[in-house]
Amino acid sequence: MRLMLAFVAAVASPVAASPESEISAANSRWTDAVAKKDMAAVEAIVAPGFRLTSGDAKDAIQRAAWLANLSKLQIAAYKIEITDLEVHGDTAISTVSGSWDVALGNKKWSDKFQLLDIWVRGPSGWQVVRRHITGE
Fold first, then answer.
1. Model's pTM, two decimal places?
2. Is 59 helix (H, G, I), strand (E, B) or coil?
3. Of 20, 55, 102, 122, which is most buried with the most CB atoms under 10 A?
C-alpha cells in the first residue's frame, strides 16, 4: 500500500518546467503581445532595465522609448522564432530569427532580422534585459 501511495504521489506531483521551456513560453507570450499590441503583457516580459541595440551597439534605445515606439506601430505581420538557446543558471541567451510588416505613419517596413536576447530569471519569472537586432 505504501508503495502504491508513493507512486501516486510521485505521478501527481507537478514536474518543474525546464528553463528552456519557460523561456520558450515567455517568448511566445511576448511575440503574441507585440503582434496584438498588448502593452501590459509586453511590459511584464521586458525588464525595467531593458535596452535595444543595433548595428555597432553604440546607441541604445531605453525601455520607455522602445515601448512608446512599439505602441505607435501598425503591425500587419510579426513572426519570431528562437533558433538557439543557451541557459546559464538564471541567465539565458537566445538567438532569434524574425520578420515583420509594420507601418508608422506613411512609412512602411517589411524586414527580416536576427535578434540576440538576454533573459534573466527574477522573482516574476524570465524577463528580457537586452535585445540586439541586425538586418538579414
1. 0.84
2. coil
3. 102
Using CA of residue 83, residue 63, residue 34, residue 76, what is the dihedral sign? negative
Residue 110, Cα to own-chain centre: how many angstroms? 20
Q: Report d(CA 32, CA 80) in Å as an integer.
A: 10
Within 10 angstroms of residue 44's Cβ, the number of other Cβ atoms is 16
94, part of any domain: yes
Residue 37: inside a domain, yes or no? yes
DSSP state of 136: -
CA dist 9 and 60 (Å) reads 50
| Count of structural domains within the chain | 1
- CATH number of the domain that residue 112 is part of: 3.10.450.50
Q: What is the dihedral of CA 32, 33, 38, 41, to 10 degrees?
A: 140
